[in-house]
Amino acid sequence: AKGGSHGMASAQRMNLLQRVEELQAEVATLKRNYARREQEHQVELAEQRNKLIAGGAEAFATVGTGGNQGGNLGGSMLGGSVRGPERADVQQVRVECQRELDHMKERFAAESVSHEKTIERLVAEARSHEAEIEQLVKEKEELTRELIQVK
Question: What are the coiled-coil residue ranges (predicted)?
Fold first, then answer.
């Protein structure tokens, strides 16, 4: 009878060891994915920041030269005097540029929050896997003690 129960414990132990290895591989994969996503996130943040800066520079260049508002507006701005409807056009461009910048900042902030939530979720998943592994290791140690007692 002892041999039979020993066989069961041994099979259980093998299953447990296999499960621990699977979980460790899963955690390693999660950590790699997390690192890759974090890297992608940093690249995205840098790209967004550059777009924001480029957008801001372009917006101010547009305001500064009169840009799409036409040659005479650009000319009068360069001449240093902007009057009447031309001043309203410049003001309109400034407002539109500011609105676009604000919109980009909001979108950027929302995406950052979304990425942070994804990262938090991944970290929570990794922690739960680590807790499972700790539990399995404890069970394995108990089984090992039982095995020693059986012998």
Answer: 13-51
